[in-house]
Amino acid sequence: MGSQDKLVLYTNHFCPWAHRAHIALAELGIPYEEVIIDLSVPRTPEYLQINPRGLVPSLSFNGEIITESAIVAQFLADQYPSHLVPPSNAPGGALRRARISFFVDAYISKVNSVLFGLYGAKTEEDQKAVGDKAVAALVKEVEPLLVDASPFFGGSDKLTLAEVLTGSFVLRLKALTAANVYPKAIWTAIEEQAPKFAKWAEAVTAHPSVTSIWDEKSNIERTIERLAKLRANA
Ligand SMILES: N[C@@H](CCC(=O)N[C@@H](CS)C(=O)NCC(=O)O)C(=O)O
């Protein structure tokens, strides 16, 4: 099935959204061609034909273009049935899909969106306030959803779509706090106040499908540059 399909992923390895597609493809073991899009220059007319929004990732599946990282990852998980997520008509499948979607929504909309505030936070005090708010949201919204993680979402011993859609962000949060590019205190507070999340994050960020395109050093360097630029303009 999979081997006959022609997949092309338009991507950039520094993009956490595009990284979601890489995690899905790695975990599913599907061969694909990769086209790196240079995001430092305007998109070419050719790429804008593929994705009029000009964003990465885009996936070409036998010539059909699919865009938006969550939709790309969900499509891959549905097209190639696996341990990532059950079909909606399997026993308990619809409920598990709902649980996964809620977890992803909680992490992305309640925690990750708050952390983006670090890019506009100039002073240490402002950065601490953002960190406190993100950790409080994590404790309230995400920690309770990991009660049965073992080590992955919902008691799974393998990666699930929940990790496919959040792993790239967790990887960056962990690495950037460890390097004190994001305040180190954020991770310390997570370990103290959200131990299930910390344990889950440990397993997620060690998983080869999550780390396959990850270049920690370059990501840290680029984030330092980006933070400096955005804070200078804030
Ligand atoms: N909602 C989109 C977000 C993708 C996105 O923001 N990609 C960024 C890179 S991380 C991008 O392509 N930026 C290009 C630009 O803004 O010019 C998704 O989930 O796919």
From TrEMBL:
Domain GST N-terminal positions: 5-84
InterPro entries membership: Glutathione-S-Trfase_C-like (IPR010987), Glutathione-S-Trfase_C_sf (IPR036282), Glutathione_S-Trfase (IPR040079), Glutathione_S-Trfase_N (IPR004045), GST_Omega/HSP26 (IPR050983), Thioredoxin-like_sf (IPR036249)
GO cellular component, one term: cytoplasm
Residue ranges of domain GST C-terminal in the record: 93-230
Protein family (similarity comment): Belongs to the GST superfamily.
Protein name: Thioredoxin-like protein
Organismal lineage: Eukaryota, Fungi, Dikarya, Ascomycota, Pezizomycotina
